[in-house]
Amino acid sequence: MMKLFILFFVTFLNLMFVSCSAFSTTEELSISLKEISFKESIECVYISTDGKIVNEFYEGEETVITVFKNTPTPILFRDEKYGIIYPYTLELDKASAFCADVFLTMYKASNSQKESSLLYLQQFNWAKLIECVSEYDDPWLLNKQKIMEAIADGTFTKRSITLL
Known about the structure:
Number of strands: 6
Structural class: alpha+beta
Strand content: 15-25%
Order of helices and strands: HEEEEEEHHHH
Distance between the termini: 76 Å
Helix content: 25-40%
């Protein structure tokens, strides 16, 4: 009986150590940069887990960014206008980049209300915006200001998306 208890206890401890990452609130997001052609390095802008806007330059074919699990996080590769909004898109594209730019621009404009602004922005339906923006050949020709005003007012609909 004692051997069974010890075996069970050792197995339990082993599972606890191995599965600790399952209880983590963050994860390492690996982003492939193979699709993007850039000269020496590329600028990446994102909101870190401590709520700060991070500007970093990356070289190579892949980058790893720490994000909160299942929490909307904009990641924008500026020079080439590619990006994602984790967890809704995991492959770089221009529609997601436009939406990430909207997210980052609104967050930057929130000045003294960063925490509440971030919570508000994380509640927005980014998946729907990405879907709507994807219908346009060049999302950078859309009226970003009108979209941001509608999101801020809580009145955003598909009709809020118009060309400049």
